[in-house]
Design brief:
Helix content: 40-55%
Family: Belongs to the peptidase M1 family.
CATH superfamily of the largest domain: Neutral Protease Domain 2
Number of helices: 29
Bound molecules: 2-acetamido-2-deoxy-beta-D-glucopyranose, zinc ion
Subcellular location: Cell membrane
Subunit structure: Homodimer.
Number of strands: 29
GO cellular component, one term: plasma membrane
Largest sheet: 8 strands, mixed
Number of domains: 5
Low-confidence stretches: 4-35
Shape: globular
Distance between the termini: 53 Å
Radius of gyration: 28 Å
GO molecular function: metalloaminopeptidase activity; peptide binding; zinc ion binding
Strand content: 15-25%
CATH architecture of the largest domain: Orthogonal Bundle
Length: 940
C-alpha cells in the first residue's frame, strides 16, 4: 500500500509532527488447541492448497444513488475458473459482507469444464469469522480437472474506505458520488467472492455497468462502452481487456464523472491522470503527468525491465484512507498525494507527490509483477518501495537532495520506534500472520521505514549498481509469480559474487541479523584504545526485552568512518567486541562514524572524542558532513534518553546551531527539542528553554530575512525552503517579536481581502498557525470558512492543522465536536484533526477527554479496525508524564477492553512510554532547568 499509511506525511513535513507512527507488535501466536479435534478447514484463516484459480469473469454494477432503504449498494455476478490440484469435496472461497443469491437453496452454481463433471452440491453456507463461502460437495473434485463456480450477489457501497466503497464530493453545488475500491490487504472479498490471498494469482475479466454520464476504469484498458437498458434505465457497460496474471489485492475499479489529462496517443505507455474536473482545470494534475513518464523510465532502467503493462492510470480520490494504493495499472491516491497546484501548494506538498508517485510506480514491478507469497513478507514489499521511491524522486527532481532526505524522513524517525522493547522484527513467520487484523497491524513504520533503512544499508555496502543487477534477475525469474524474501537474498548474492565484491559473510547471514531480530545496535567506539563494542539500543534503559532472539541481539555492522577529515574507511564489526587500532586517536584527532547514516545504528564515543566533536562543531562545523551534523544531534539526544550520555551533552550539541544554516541539523534539533517541549511546556523550565531557542534561532531568522530580501523572494534551494519554515516557526513560537508581527500582518492582509492570498505557499501552514494562535475567534472563523471553501486538498489540510493552533479552549472543544460530523470534517481526516488538537498544550487535555468519552462512537464509525486508531491513541497521549496520567491510561484500558482492535498494541506502547517519560522528567527536570538558565543568563 502507499506510503502515509501510518502518518499523514504532508502535514508532518510542514508542522514537525515527529514521524513516529504507531508501531504494532506482532506477538507470536502459539496455537493452543484445547479441543481434541483439529479445527474444520473453514475455521482456518488460510486457504487449503487443493484449488488454484485460473481466471475470473466479474460483472459489477455500483448504484450511485441510494435505494428505497436509503442504502447505497452494488450488485453483480462472478464466475471463477479454477484447477483442482488435490482432490477434495470442499470448496472454500473468500466472501465477506456480500448477500449471495440462492440457486435451489445453494449460494453458488458449479460446472465442470473440458469434459469434467461437477459433483452436486451438498451444503453451502457463509462462515463469517473466517470470511468464507463454504461449498460442500457430494463427491470429489478430480485432481487435474477444471471447474467453474458462479455466484450472484449484492453488497453495500459503504463510506468506510474499504472494499468497493463510495467517495463523495461537491461540484457546482451538487453532490457527486464516486464508486471506488481499496482491496489491500483483505477486502477484495467484499467486492466479489474470490481466493483472496496474494499467491492466488489469476487473470481477471472485468465488466462494469454504470450511469451514462460516468466513466469506468479498471486495471486493464477498457473496450468501447456499449449502451444497455436495465429495467428501463439506460446505462453503459464497460468491459476491460483481461488483466495480466495478478493478485486480488491489486484489483481496482472506479466509476466516476472525472476527466483526465494524458500522454498523446501513440506514446509507448498511455499515462493518464484522473481527477475531479475542477482540479484538472486548475492544472493540479500537470505536475504528476509531467513526472510520471520520467519516473517510469527511471525504473525501467533501474530494474532493466520494461514497464509490464500497456497503460498507467493514476486517480485522485476525495476520500481515501492510505496515501495511495499501487493497484496494477490503476493507482489510487489521496488528492494530496497526486495533485499539486503551483503557487498554492508548498514545496513539501510537491515532494510528497513526487515520492508517493515514485513509491507506487516502483511497486508496478516489485510487488505487482513479483509478489510476496504471504503478508509476513510485507516489509520487503513496502520497505523496498519506500527505499527506491527516494531514488525515483531524486531522478525526477535532482536538485532536491532526496537521497539525503531519506535519512530525515524515514530513518531517524523509525529509530525512535525501533528502540522500544515493544518493537518487533521486520520479518514475521507465515504461521503467525493469519487474521485480517494481524495483517493490518503490519502496515506500520517498522515495515515501511526500517524496511527502507536496512535495504538502503545493504544497497550501499554492495553498491547501488550491484543491488539493481540482483533485482533484475530476481524479477526475471519470478515475474507473474510469488516469492519469499530469501529469493531476493539469493539473487543479490549472485550479483555480489559476479561483481567480485567481498563481504565478511553472505548477504543472507548479514541481513538475517537485521530482519529477524527487532531493534538495532548502539556501537560504542573508544578512541583511546580502538575498542569497538555493540549492544542492543533501548530508549528506556529500564525496559525489559522479553522477546528472545536467536542472534542474542548482536548484529553484523558495516561501520564507515573518517578520522580528522581524512578519507572514508570501512570496518565490519562481526562480534560483540573488537579492536581496530586504526580507530585509536592521537592528540587533536577526532573520529566520526556512520558516515551519512548509511548504517542503521547509533554511535557513542568516549567522552574525549565527544568533546573533540563538539569543539569541531563550534569551530568549523562544515568539516563534518551535513547528515552527520544531524546524526550527532540525534544520537546524542537519544543516548541521553537512554541514560548512556548526560542530557547536558545532548543539549550542548545544539550550541553550534546559531551558526548553522542547513535544514537537516535544524530539523533534527527541533524534533528532539519537541520532546523537551512536550515534557516541560507546562512547567517552570518553559521560560528559560524558550529563551535559549529564541537566542539560537534569531540569527537563522535574520539570515532568511536577508536572503529573501525582506521575505519577498522564495529561497532557491528545496531544503532552504524547508529551513525558512523552521526559522519562522521556531522564531514565532519562541516569541521573536518581528516574527509574530510578520505572520499576523500577512494573515490580516488576507482577511481584509479573502480572494487574494499573498502568503507564500511554503509558509502558509506556519503563518496560519501562528496567526490563529495569536488571534481570536475572528481569525478562527475566517480560517474555517477558507477551509470549507478550499478546492485544493493540500490547502484544506493546512487550514485543518492551523485551526488546531488557537489558544481558546472553547474553540478547540467545538473543533473536536466537528470531528464527529462528516459534513464538517471528512472521516478520513477525523483522527488527524484530533491528534493536531492534542499537540497544542491547551488542546491536549480536551482531546484526551474527548477521545475517552467518544471512544465507542469513534471506534464503530471511524474504523476502529484501521491503522489510524493506534495513531490516535499515540497522538493524544504524547505529553503524558505523570502518575496521574498513567493511572488514567490504565483506567482507559479497562474501560474500552474489547473495543481496541488494532490499537491494542499502541496502548501498551503508550503505557511504556508514559512510564519512561515519568522517569525521565524526574531525573532531568532540574538539570535541564539549570542548563537553560545558565545558557541564557547573559540575556536580559
Ligand atoms: C464473461 O461473462 C459474460 C456474460 O456475463 C460473457 O458474455 C463472456 O463471454 C464471459 N467472458 C469470459 C472470458 O468468460
Ligand atoms: C443483506 O441482507 C441483510 C439481511 O437480510 C440486510 O439487512 C442487508 O441490508 C442486505 N444488504 C444489502 C446490501 O442488500
Ligand atoms: C449510446 O447512446 C447515446 C445516447 O444516449 C448515443 O449518443 C451513442 O451513440 C450510443 N452509442 C452506441 C455505441 O450506440
Ligand atoms: C545578506 O545577503 C547578502 C547577499 O544576498 C550578503 O552579501 C550579506 O552578507 C548578507 N548579510 C547578512 C547580515 O547576512
Ligand atoms: C528591508 O526592510 C528594511 C526596513 O523594514 C529596510 O531598511 C531594508 O532596506 C529592506 N531591505 C531590502 C533588501 O529590501
Ligand atoms: Zn507501498
Amino acid at each position: 500500500m502507499g506510503k502515509g499509511f501510518f502518518i499523514n506525511k504532508t502535514v508532518a513535513i510542514i508542522c514537525g509532527v515527529a514521524a513516529i507512527g504507531a508501531v504494532a507488535t506482532i506477538i507470536a501466536l502459539f496455537a493452543v488447541y484445547t479441543q481434541e479435534k483439529s479445527p474444520a478447514p473453514w475455521q482456518s484463516y488460510r486457504l487449503p492448497d487443493s484449488l488454484s484459480p485460473v481466471s475470473y469473469n466479474v460483472t459489477l454494477r455500483p448504484h450511485l444513488e441510494p435505494n428505497a432503504d436509503k442504502l447505497y449498494i452494488f450488485n453483480g455476478h462472478s464466475s471463477v475458473v479454477f484447477t483442482c490440484v488435490k482432490e477434495t469435496d470442499l470448496i472454500l472461497i473468500h466472501s465477506n459482507e456480500l448477500n449471495l443469491t440462492l440457486f435451489d437453496g445453494f449460494h453458488a452454481k458449479l460446472k465442470g469444464l473440458n469434459g469434467a463433471t461437477a459433483p452436486s452440491l451438498k451444503k453451502t453456507w457463509l462462515e463469517v469469522p473466517t470470511q468464507y463461502l463454504v461449498v460442500q460437495l457430494s463427491s470429489l473434485l478430480q485432481a487435474g480437472s477444471m471447474y467453474e463456480l458462479f455466484t450472484e450477489f449484492v453488497g453495500e457501497l459503504t463510506d468506510n474506505l474499504g472494499g468497493f466503497y463510495r467517495s463523495e464530493y461537491i461540484e457546482d453545488g451538487e453532490k457527486r458520488v464516486v464508486a471506488t475500491t481499496q482491496m489491500q490487504p483483505t477486502d477484495a472479498r467484499k467486492a466479489f467472492p474470490c481466493f483472496d490471498e496474494p499467491a492466488m494469482k489469476a487473470v481477471f475479466h472485468m465488466t462494469l455497468i454504470h450511469p451514462q454520464d460516468t466513466v469506468a476504469l479498471s486495471n486493464a484498458m477498457n473496450f468501447e462502452p456499449i449502451n444497455i437498458t436495465i429495467e428501463g434505465q439506460k446505462l453503459l457497460q464497460t468491459s476491460f481487456e483481461p488483466t495480466e496474471i495478478m493478485s486480488t489485492y491489486l484489483l481496482a475499479f472506479v466509476v466516476c464523472d472525472f476527466t483526465y489529462i494524458g500522454t498523446k496517443p501513440g506514446a509507448e505507455v498511455l499515462i493518464r491522470i484522473w481527477a475531479r474536473k475542477k482540479a484538472l482545470e486548475e492544472g493540479q494534475g500537470n505536475y504528476a503527468l509531467e513526472k510520471t513518464g520520467p519516473i517510469l523510465a527511471f525504473f525501467e532502467n533501474y530494474y532493466n525491465s520494461s514497464y509490464p503493462l500497456k497503460k498507467s492510470d493514476q486517480i485522485a480520490l476525495p476520500d481515501f484512507n492510505a496515501g495511495a494504493m499501487e493497484n496494477w495499472g490503476l493507482i489510487t491516491y489521496r488528492e494530496t498525494a497526486l495533485l499539486y497546484n503551483p503557487g498554492v501548494s508548498s514545496n513539501g506538498d510537491k515532494e510528497w507527490v513526487a515520492t508517493v508517485i515514485s513509491h507506487e510506480l516502483a511497486h508496478m514491478w516489485f510487488g505487482n509483477l513479483v509478489t510476496m507469497r504471504w503478508w509476513n513478507d510485507l516489509w520487503l514489499n513496502e520497505g523496498f518501495a519506500t527505499y527506491v521511491s527516494y531514488l525515483g524522486s531524486n531522478n525526477a527532481e535532482p536538485k532536491w537532495g532526496m537521497k539525503d532526505l531519506i535519512v530525515l524522513n524515514e530513518i531517524i524517525g523509525v529509530m525512535a520506534v525501533d528502540a522500544l522493547a515493544y518493537s518487533h522484527p521486520l520479518s514475521s513467520n507465515e504461521e503467525d500472520i493469519l487474521k485480517p487484523e494481524h495483517i493490518s497491524e503490519l502496515f506500520d513504520s517498522i515495515t515501511y521505514s526500517k524496511g527502507a533503512a536496512v535495504l538502503r544499508m545493504l544497497s550501499e555496502f554492495i553498491t547501488e549498481t550491484v543491488f539493481s543487477k540482483g533485482l533484475h534477475t530476481y524479477l526475471e525469474e519470478f515475474k507473474y509469480s510469488n516469492t519469499v524474501y530469501k529469493d531476493l537474498w539469493r539473487h543479490l548474492q549472485m550479483a555480489v559474487d559476479k561483481a567480485g565484491i567481498s563481504l565478511p559473510e553472505s548477504v543472507e547471514v548479514i541481513m538475517n541479523r537485521w530482519i529477524l531480530q527487532m531493534g538495532f545496535p548502539l556501537v560504542t567506539i573508544n578512541t583511546q584504545t580502538g575498542t569497538i563494542t555493540q549492544k542492543h539500543f533501548l530508549l528506556d534503559p529500564n525496559s525489559v526485552v522479553d522477546r528472545p532472539s536467536e542472534f542474542m541481539y548482536e548484529w553484523i555492522v558495516p561501520i564507515t568512518w573518517i578520522k580528522t577529515g581524512g578519507p572514508e574507511q570501512q570496518y565490519w564489526l562481526l562480534t560483540k567486541e573488537a579492536t581496530n587500532s586504526n580507530m585509536s586517536l592521537g592528540a587533536d584527532e577526532w573520529l566520526l562514524a556512520n558516515i551519512n547514516m548509511r548504517g542503521f545504528y547509533r554511535v557513542n564515543y568516549d567522552s574525549e572524542n565527544w568533546e573533540r566533536l563538539l569543539a569541531k562543531l563550534s569551530s568549523k562545523h562544515k568539516d563534518i558532513p551535513v547528515i552527520n551534523r544531524a546524526q550527532i544531534i540525534d544520537d546524542a539526544f537519544n543516548l541521553a534518553r537512554a541514560k548512556v550520555v548526560s542530557t547536558t551533552l545532548a543539549l550542548r550539541t545544539t550550541k553550534f546551531l546559531n551558526k548553522e544554516k542547513e535544514y537537516m541539523p535544524w530539523k533534527t534539533a527541533s524534533r528532539n527539542l519537541d520532546y523537551f517541549f512536550l515534557m516541560f511546556d507546562r512547567s517552570e523550565v518553559y521560560g528559560p528553554m524558550q529563551a535559549y531557542i529564541k537566542k539560537q534561532v534569531t540569527p537563522l531568522f535574520q539570515y532568511f530575512k536577508n536572503i529573501t530580501l525582506n521575505w519577498t523572494k522564495i529561497p532557491e534551494n528545496h531544503m532552504d525552503q524547508y529551513n525558512q519554515v523552521n526559522a519562522i516557526s521556531l522564531a514565532c513560537s519562541t516569541g521573536v517579536k518581528e516574527c509574530v508581527a510578520l505572520t499576523t500582518g500577512w494573515f490580516k492582509d488576507w482577511m481584509a481581502n479573502p480572494s487574494k492570498n499573498n502568503i507564500s505557499a511554503n509558509l502558509k501552514s506556519t503563518v496560519y498557525c501562528s496567526a490563529i494562535a495569536a488571534g481570536g475567534v475572528a481569525e478562527w472563523e475566517f480560517a474555517w470558512g477558507m477551509y470549507k471553501n478550499a478546492t485544493l486538498a493540500s490547502e484544506a489540510d493546512k487550514l485543518m492543522y492551523a485551526l488546531s493552533c488557537t489558544k481558546e479552549p472553547w474553540l478547540l472543544n467545538r473543533y473536536l465536536q466537528y470531528c464527529l460530523d462528516p459534513e464538517k470534517i471528512r472521516k478520513q481526516d477525523a483522527t488527524h484533526t484530533i491528534v493536531y488538537i492534542a499537540s497544542n498544550p491547551i488542546g491536549q487535555p480536551l482531546a484526551w477527554d474527548f477521545v475517552r468519552s467518544n471512544w465507542g462512537l469513534l471506534f464503530n464509525e471511524y474504523g476502529g479496525g484501521s491503522f489510524s486508531f493506534g495513531r490516535l491513541i499515540d497522538g493524544v497521549t504524547k505529553r503524558f508524564s505523570t502518575e496521574f496520567e498513567y493511572k488514567q491510561l490504565l483506567q482507559f484500558k479497562q474501560d474500552i477492553a474489547g473495543q481496541l482492535g488494532s490499537a491494542a498494541m499502541s496502548l501498551e506502547q503508550v503505557l511504556e512510554r508514559t512510564r519512561a517519560n515519568m522517569n525521565w522528567v524526574a531525573e532531568n527536570q532540574n538539570k535541564v532547568l539549570e542548563w537553560f538558565t545558565t545558557e541564557t543568563s547573559s540575556l536580559v
